[in-house]
Specification:
The structure is a single chain. By secondary structure, the protein is mainly beta. It has one domain. It is built from 2 helices and 8 strands; from the N terminus they run βββββββααβ. A 4-stranded antiparallel sheet has the order 1-8-7-6, with no helix packed on it. Strands 2-3 form a two-stranded antiparallel sheet. β2 and β3 form a beta hairpin. It is globular and about 35 Å long. It starts with a strand and ends in a 9-residue tail after the last strand. About 5% of the residues are buried.
């Protein structure tokens, strides 16, 4: 099955916006947990959690993925506060989400 994916980039850890040369830009520090740099590319690691909620179109919630060592350094309350940053909706050729 194919999915449409929406991610709120402002919920990525340490994301900010600023004005540069008259344009609003998104800044995300790449030397942080949850991002990896490989061969000149920067990857955002995500976990898709399968949910089936009646009346909701999305089937998965997305969370930024962190390493075990990083998570071990957080308190239980801090781990719970890691936000969902997006969701997935089944895609159809007509562009409408499955129900």
């Amino acid at each position: 099955m194919n999915y449409n994916i929406q991610i709120d980039l402002m919920k990525v850890m340490l994301a900010t916006t600023e004005i540069v040369a008259g344009a609003r830009v998104l800044r995300i520090p790449i030397d942080q947990e949850g991002l990896s740099v490989q061969n000149g590319s920067v990857f955002l690691r995500l976990t898709a959690l399968n949910i089936q909620t009646p009346g909701r179109q999305h089937t998965h919630l997305l969370k930024q993925q962190f390493g075990k060592d990083y998570l071990a350094g957080l308190g239980e309350e801090d781990r719970r506060r890691i936000p969902f940053i997006g969701y997935m909706v089944p895609w159809t050729p007509d562009g409408k989400a499955h129900k």
